[in-house]
Amino acid sequence: MALKLGIYKCAMCGNVVEVFIEGDGELVCCGQPMTLMDERNKDGAGEKHLPVVEQTANGILVKVGSVPHPMEPDHWIQFIEVITEDNYVLRKELHPGDKPEAEFKVSQSQIKLVREFCNKHGLWATK
Ligand SMILES: [Fe+2]
User: Which of 37, 8, 32, 10 is nearest to 22 (CA)?
Assistant: First the structure.
């Protein structure tokens, strides 16, 4: 069974998908089950991965992390996502060479979850 808002990755080809309506089926890619990415928040280089939320005049600025994460061609933040209390999902795709940050027009009080996805180190979240 796929989890709502779960992020799954194919270990073979690198496809990443997010489930917006859950069903009973198993997600399969390249002939094998996809891996549910856990939202890490303790292990490894947390200072380079945990999202940091700052208030701005128009909303919030999410930085990855307290020490800026690399944005190199072989190691970068692929997206930053904000999920609100009223179930909006706001996502900014990033590319090598971009700053590891994104601004969202949402008030800090509406945030349910902020997460980011590193191509090497997976999913990290701040609640
Ligand atoms: Fe990383």
Answer: 8
